[in-house]
Amino acid sequence: MFNPHDIRQQFPVFTHFPDLVYLDSAATTQKPYIVLALEQEYYERHNANVHRGIYRLAAEATALYEGTRERSARFLNAPQAKQIIFTSGTTDGINLVAQCFALPRLEAGDQLLISAMEHHSNLIPWQQVCLAKKAELKVIPFLPNGELDMQALQDLLNPKVKLLALTHISNTLGTINPIETIIPLAHAQGIPVLVDAAQSIVSHKIDVQALDVDFLVFSGHKLFGPTGTGVLYGKEKWLNEMPPYRFGGEMIRDVTFERTLFAPIPQKFEAGTPNIAGVATLASAMDFVEDLGQKNIATHLQRLLHLGMERLASIPGIQFYGEATNKSGIISFTLEGIHPHDLATILGQKDICIRAGHHCTQPIMDFYEIPGTVRVSFSVYNVEEDVLKLEKGLREVMGVMGRVN
Fold it and tell me: Among this protein's residues, is 353 annotated catalytic?
């Protein structure tokens, strides 16, 4: 049975700070005991560099590191483990595809396609390669309620588009985009698709083969895993064609002063000493999520979302941003006459952890003609009491600011 009160006890931060109301999981998740214990165990018992070492510690470190690659492939239902590239996070994975896939293929007049709700990490890399190649960055608009404009998307699909890069769940609006519908539409025009799954990897069981997605990226730290870890999945044909863009140890097959032969995938894209401890530990985070059940997590987030929207809607002067029909556990809002940073500062003093600002989505703020929002994001360890404390805290802030609450 999915019991958030029991789940909460698996996170030491709530043992140290029992009254903490952590509502910022879209930025990063807290870490359970199992993840923290395994990272410490790695450094105490298995610490060595991976690959090539023939002594016991090196063999153990390599087994743990490559074991996570196998675990990641199962987690995503990837055809082969070699299609899993370890990165430092979602941003790193997107930049890899931008530099190694998009940049070599783009010519003047070509197009790349993104949505208007993308995180800057899924905007700037494409913007920069378009500038370098005199290509065009096309943008799919969203509707005032935060839903993607599907008709506009279909109108923008054409043979000039060399890649569609799209978030699965908006980190600001909470909108869940219908990638299972969008990917076939793009493929019908011969357009490869990259999906940013940073916000969906916890609550959605992603099957890359069923989706037929070309690239998919996510971060470990939003999956209850270590910071500085991430996964890029790619179709084998694309990964084999793509040149590396980081050079150094481990990613080579043979080197002379005149030329270098690169290793096959995945090593081709993993130059230098990686975050071995983080990667080794990431598998336990995947186990943790699958043990809870992603459908159970999604149901829990919907329950908190509906409760949160209901309770906060009664506060005078509140304005929500992102009210799509299909929405995840993220609420963005403003309170009339109170700056989001003032709200976040005062709530933070009460150990109510929310985020204020543009959330690395300045074009969304420009669309709504606001400087920023307050963002509340739920996770597995949040309980109904967190929502009630948030509502109480907001009303207290209004009192401090001289507002009727």
Answer: no
